[in-house]
Design a protein that fits this description.
The protein is mostly helical. Helices cover about 65% and strands about 5% of the residues. The protein has 10 helices and 4 strands, in the order H-H-E-E-E-E-H-H-H-H-H-H-H-H. The strands form 2 sheets. It has a two-stranded antiparallel ribbon with strand order 1-2. It has a two-stranded antiparallel ribbon with strand order 3-4. Strand 3 and strand 4 form a beta hairpin. Helix 6 crosses helix 7 and helix 6 packs across helix 10.
Length: about 230
């Protein structure tokens, strides 16, 4: 895994990809999404620093956040892209065209499996934890409970330990000092670490059952989002 404290400056290869992407979009603006996906497929940096922001696209050397890379590329293209379509892609995960699983396999190439790792290890795991928190909240909503008790019960139920203890293990395992605030990247890395921890420590039958719960919870969250944003259906 890349040292999380290392800030990798944009390489000449990254600059070349962005220059070629810019040229393609200027020539054929309607093809912007497929041009971005071609750049995503070709991209080799697991992380970089650009415009004073550090982007970490690959978590634990195996989970690929293609949408974060797409955000980086969209930022580089700026006003060349249709703002509404870019917002739908980056904030709601909705590409401007309908795509099948086979289409995604083609668009992402060798990055498709690392993309699935991110889906299961971050999105599904987050949904599983959200469902556990909701269940704990419903159990206690008619009682007086201490701040943080819902989170503690949810983490205890899913992982067998409270969040604070798991977070300490996460920081220690990654050779990093514990911090009060966590960036979105930190949260995603912690969530993926939790996924691997659950797979490593739980009974296989329990792992499969909880993963199914997470997938069902994710589908429910996606349905709620679709009902709130009907134009994105």
């Amino acid at each position: 895994m890349t040292d999380p404290q290392l800030k990798v400056e944009p390489s000449s290869d990254a600059r070349r990809i962005i220059e070629e992407l810019t040229s393609t979009v200027r020539t054929d603006p309607d093809a912007w999404f497929f041009a971005i996906m071609a750049a995503v497929r070709e991209w080799s940096l697991p992380e970089e620093t650009a415009a004073l922001r550090t982007y970490r696209y690959l978590i634990a050397g195996e989970a690929f956040d293609w949408l974060l890379l797409a955000e980086r590329l969209c930022d580089a293209l700026g006003d060349l892209l249709p703002a509404d379509d870019v917002e739908a892609l980056l904030f709601h995960g909705r590409p401007p065209v309908e795509l099948t699983d086979d289409d995604w396999k083609t668009l992402l190439g060798a990055k498709y499996r690392p993309h699935l790792n991110f889906v299961y290890g971050v999105h599904v795991e987050s949904a599983l934890l959200h469902a556990a928190q909701e269940a704990a909240y419903k159990e206690h909503q008619s009682r007086v409970w201490e701040n943080g008790r819902v989170d503690d019960e949810a983490f205890q139920g899913v992982y067998g330990k409270p969040r604070s203890e798991l977070l300490c293990e996460f920081w220690a395992e990654n050779g990093r000092e514990e911090t009060d605030g966590m960036s979105l990247t930190d949260v995603n890395e912690f969530t993926y670490w939790l996924f691997r921890y659950r797979v490593r420590t739980a009974d296989p039958a329990r792992v499969a059952s909880d993963t199914r719960k997470g997938m069902a919870a994710l589908q429910e969250l996606q349905a709620l989002r679709a009902s709130a944003w009907p134009e994105l259906k």
